[in-house]
Amino acid sequence: MKIDINSDMGEGFGPYSLCDDEALMQVVSSANIACGFHAGDPETMARMVRLAKANGVGVGAHPGLPDRLGFGRREIPSSNDQLRQQMLYQLGALTAVAKGEGVPVAHISFHAAMGNMVNRDPVLADLMMDAVRTVDPNLIVFAMPDSIIATAAARARLKTLLLFLADRAYDADGKLVARGLPGAVIKQEDALRARVRQFLLHGTVTTIDGATRAMPARSILVHSDTPGSLDLARIVRSEIEAIGATIAPASDIVES
Known about the structure:
Distance between the termini: 17 Å
Helix content: 25-40%
Radius of gyration: 17 Å
């Protein structure tokens, strides 16, 4: 079995960084690189691509809303075409930077508010997926199971890689529990290890109300802005290695 570990990377600006990207890049297998709107800049993007190349990590675009102050977490009223152009602008920027380093962009993973807006509007999701396919029909779309994004990607004949969030609680409908609610973020190491092990061995997750739900994912997402993200990534990696599975980037997992 092959499992991907992906994380949002390069979410700083100039001399500022959000996490230890160098150390995290040695643990993950796919990097979702900020493309300059919610975070990132040309030099940071290039540094992330070089780090990914040096560590055999897959490179992906992580587009967000143009909101540095709010870290792309605040929804900005925008037309569907504006959102499409913003996504294309960022995807194009990373594609050019990565090409300059001799590295392909293999996937796309939407950031925060942009992802939320796409994932609740089937019309917008179809528009975005069609635009992604126009740029590169081989791009892999990262998405949550049973999501509007995953469905739209399938309609656009794009490959997908489904995500599992080990440190976030799920509700009975398979949706993430809002961060502000008690128990939404799992921080204890024993609980994290148990959740990862359950996912790997049984393909399930225990919801916040104690039910068992199928989790048909092949990639585990580690948010780099979560306190202790490096330790979390190492926990995830150690559990994958403990069962004898192979850690691999998205492009090695998704069948052509």
